[in-house]
Input
Amino acid sequence: MELRNITTFLRVAELQNFTHAAQELGYSQSAVTVQIRQLETELGVPLFERIGRSVSLTAPGQAFLQQAGEIIKAAERAKDAVRTAPEPEGTLRLGTMESLGASVVWRLIAGFHRQFPRVNVVVRTSTADGLLEMMRRNDVDFIYFVDEKQYSPDWEIPLCCPEETVFVTSPHSRLASRAEPIPLRELVTYPCVLTEAGESYRIPFERLLAEHNLDVAPILEIGSTEIVARMVRENIGYSVLPMYVASEYIKSGELVTFPVPEFRSNMYQHVIYHKNKWVTPQMKGFMQTIIDYVNAER
Output
């Protein structure tokens, strides 16, 4: 049973398409077909159903899927055990959100580089859904993002901890001078600056507004949380931001928080990678760096 055939099987199973798997693996489609047939012959069972252009796993294929992933990981461990481990080098691909990249990840790069000086870090940013898709396609080694609590049996999740989302305003605003909480129905009458629609930390606010049949018309909607925070500091409007973005400005007195009694935050910071992913020393090192930082900030 050849490892390359098993690797091809895993890619076809993931993409559910022989042509796409061939393109990503650098093979011709006929070569992928031959490798799958060889594997099916060795196992004595069909692994895929091919109906038109549709490709799906058979019941034996489903049973073999998890074992195939374990075989590949075992082969990598065997290679690692018999060779002298050089200093880690190459590229580490991290997927994260723009806000985490600007507020957290950049702080960690210098310390990681001192530990792994020969590793090049490539950071790709997207929404939570986009990051999960990147991970599924193996376009990144692991992802670090904020969203409602996520889970899949196909993932390893080294970090899942609550992340507070807060309403912030300038200390010179009328909202800051209020001693009592601001009811939601009154809040929507004030100007606001928000991140783009669909950003994970904006979704709970939008859901709350929908529950109360309310709406807001932001002065500005933009993907950059740093620009949002800057505009709020200039007293242009209030906003709702994750604490990892707002905390530095709150500590310096440039922003203040205010309570909205109807609002409850249910966001979590996640570090996730696919269960079949081979965890390199540099990947493990950066994930632990993130986890240590998050724990120190709590």
About this structure: The mean pLDDT is 91. The longest strand covers residues 155-163. The chain has three domains: 3-82, 90-163+268-297, 165-264.
